[in-house]
Amino acid sequence: MSKKILLVNLGSPKSLSTDDVREYLREFLSDDKVIDLPKIIQQFILRAFILPFRPAKAKEAYKKIWQKEGSPLIINTQKIANSLSRKTGWSVDIAMRYQQPSIADKIELYRREGIGRVTIIPLYPHNAMSTTETTVEEINRIISETYPELNVSFVKPFYDDSKYIDALANSIKPHVKNLDKIVFSYHGIPERHLTKGDVAGNHCMKVTNCCEIDCPSSNNCYRSNVMATSKLTANKLNLNDEQWMVSFQSRVSIIGPSWLKPYTDVEVENLAEKGVEKIGVVCPSFVADCLETLEEIEMEAKESFIESGGKEFVYIPCLNDSSDFIDTLESLVNNTA
């Protein structure tokens, strides 16, 4: 019997209209797991400082990478689903945490069709309250309200899965010999998200070398997860400590001053100014190319690096529907109860 699989990614505006961009930002940034401030403060910031100004700026960024068929994130996520279905014979759907195609519509479709069991893959390799936690909570809420009989299994974050590490390493390997440094650039989060997600309550950012200690808190910690991914991949590629680094991108300083450091946009300029001529940037927290990779890194970071004196900037694409990543997803599903 064919398995039913649901891939869930973050989301994207429906179109390039300013209204659709604004609606996407409104829904996304109203999530208490994303802007984790008292609701009245969250909504004041959103309505007074973000929604009046950011949609127009975001629209211009989306225009640079928008495809004829629509949003690259949705297109690339659908390609992953199609490739996984072709390889395995499974029925594979996609949904977005925010906007369309919606999780609620998929769960309602399963109810109407009498689907009894679904394996759900949140397409975030690393634990974070603003991705994995909010997605799982929302899915469980929708199921409990509309189709409580549905039997669901979640694929857990796969930041240290051997096949995922192999896939990342294989995507980077063709470029290593020609570059001076590999930058692992991850989506940034406010530092307070680490302490809020600390399952022990007294570990994250409170214990020396907290990310390097193998314990439930570090296993659930975003920063610890991304460091593990980076170290495992660097080791797979036989990189020494001078050949790679970790940085964080996409910060929104208006929702909090203390974000994970170092910042990618600052570091690419610093590397160029220090005489590092050739760098490659890979974004392992994204499995499908999207605004944050195509516009922020491949376009903006590249321009900053070259303007600061760098000679060569290589953007290493997300895993997308590469055969290595499809093999990874197949293995993750087969190993999920």
| pLDDT averaged over residues | 95
Distance between the termini: 16 Å
Query: Based on DSSP secondary structure assignment, what is the total number of beta strands?
Result: 8
State the domain count: 2
The helix/strand class is alpha/beta
Beta-strand percent range: 5-15%
Indicate the radius of gyration in whole angstroms: 20 Å
Contiguous runs where pLDDT drops below 50 for at least 5 residues: none
The main sheet comes to: 4 strands, parallel
What is the overall number of helices?
14
Q: What CATH first level of the largest domain would be assigned? A: Alpha Beta
Based on the model shown, name its key terms.
Rossmann fold, 8 strands, four-stranded parallel β-sheet, 2 domains, single chain, 337 residues, alpha/beta
Structural features, described:
With 337 residues, this protein is α/β, with parallel strands linked by helices. The chain folds into two domains: 4-158 and 323-334, Rossmann fold; 162-316, Rossmann fold, CATH 3.40.50. It is 47% helix and 15% strand. It has 14 helices and eight strands. It has a four-stranded parallel beta sheet with strand order 2-1-3-4. It has a four-stranded parallel beta sheet with strand order 6-5-7-8, with helices on both faces. The longest helix is centred in the middle third of the chain and has 18 residues, at 129-146. The mean pLDDT is 95.
